[in-house]
Amino acid sequence: MNLRVIRANIVVSLKNFYREKTVVFFRLAFPVILILVFGTIFMERDNEIFNLDVQDLDQSKSSAQLSKEIGLSGRFKITQVAPAVNAAQYAKDNKRNLVLIIPKGSEEAVMRRMGLDDPNASVTITVIHDPSSFGVTTKMQVLNIVLAGINTKMSGKQPFIKLAETSILAKKYRFIEFFVPGIIAMAVMTASLFGAVNVNAELRQKGVLRKLATTPITRTEWILSNILYQFILAVLSTTLMLLVSYGVFNVSLEINAWLPVFVALDVFAFVGLGMILTRVAKEAESAAAASDALMFPMMFLSVTFFPVEMMPEFLQTFAKVLPLYYVNEGLRASMVSLDNMAALKYAAIIGIFAAVVFVVGIMTTTLSEEAT
After folding, report:
1. Average pLDDT of 345-353?
2. Residue 126, φ and ψ in degrees, nearest 5
3. 3-state helix/strand/coil string of the chain
């Protein structure tokens, strides 16, 4: 056995490994990123403090004490909602998955109960929730435990506080309905970004773009053909995902004109980013590594797999500056909550972003300069 040969072979393998930036990323950096992201999100979930919006319609000492008791449980951070506000609309507009409503007459019921005029007197609290939200089930379970503890402090065998659930959605949705639009947005992003980066970087490295400059094709024609190609692939991929979702999981999603709009915006936004990346990182390997570094944080922090409210506050702030977040939220607004105004708002945001990066991408992509 020749140890020098073994050592030389190991050195060559390590040098080759180092040269392949994409391989280095997936073997070393990517698992670390997963640990950091999911560790931060799910760290100490058992002791998590949830945000809870409370609308007090009774405006009495007893109702205020009830709200305070829920907060003192240590499981909820209470935000008061004005009595004049429509709670269901408030939940939709502010992306709240759970709003608790204390009804009028709560203090009167407490007085009857404590005064023994009516030992079975009770108060029915309404919770308006979003059943498609991943975290709402756990949140409601914790709320039930807290209210059960408050009930034990009241005299009598019958529970004083009862819950009535109301969904903010027109239909009953499951988590799979939340999940599918996010996967569509992520798949289109991945294909568009990788497609633009891999094709352009590889063609540049092989000198194909320099040769194209000597042909009748213009820069606009070249870019437009690539955009249409990516859009066709995105439509095929989206159609396949929806067919599988309907066929296997029997999902209940609204398919309307917003779907192709967001798919197109998704393609334009990330093809534009891809063109910019291939201009900054000219080698195929470095461009691919740059796209990985850009894509994976968006994949896990843009509410693709779980709602933004499950994240720590600093990650929630970071998520809302990522373009994929607005594609995800726009698709869910149009396919799940059927909120056209919200869909329009998200389409406008991602549309402006797509226009900016696409124009910059066009300006930085040339055919003739590849000869230099």
Report:
1. 95
2. -95, 135
3. CCHHHHHHHHHHHHHHHHHCHHHHHHHHHHHHHHHHHHHHHHCCHHHCCEEEEEEECCCCHHHHHHHHHHHHCCCEEEEEECCCCCHHHHHHHCCCCEEEEECCCHHHHHHHHHCCCCCCCCEEEEEEECCCCCCHHHHHHHHHHHHHHHHHCCCCCCCCEEEEEEECCCCCCCHHHHHHHHHHHHHHHHHHHHHHHHHHHHHHHCCHHHHHCCCCCCHHHHHHHHHHHHHHHHHHHHHHHHHHHHHHHCCCCCCCCHHHHHHHHHHHHHHHHHHHHHHHCCCHHHHHHHHHHHHHHHHHHCCCCCCHHHCCHHHHHHHCCCHHHHHHHHHHHHHCCCCHHHHHHHHHHHHHHHHHHHHHHHHHCCCHHHHC
Burial of residue 310 (number of CB atoms within 10 Å: 0-12, 13-18, 19+): buried
Q: Label residue 331 by pLDDT band (50, 70, 90).
A: very high
> Is the pLDDT score of 371 beyond 50?
no
Over the stretch 58-108, which tens digit does the pLDDT of each residue have?
888 888 888 888 888 888 888 899 988 888 888 878 878 889 999 988 888
Give yes or no for a contact between 278 and 287, defined as CB atoms under 8 angstroms apart.
yes
Tokens at 272, concatenated: 């534009």
Q: Is the pTM of this model over 0.85?
A: no
Q: Of 129, 118, 80, which is closest to residue 102 (Cα–Cα)?
A: 80
Task: List CB contacts of 66: < 8 A, sequence separation 6 or more.
Answer: 102, 106, 150, 161
- 60 φ/ψ sector (left φ>0, alpha ψ -120 to 50, else beta): beta
Specify burial of residue 36 (Cβ count, 10 A radius: 0-12, 13-18, 19+): exposed
Give 209-266 pLDDT, tens digit per residue.
566 556 666 666 677 777 888 889 899 999 999 999 898 888 888 899 999 999 999 9
pLDDT over 90 (residue 130): no
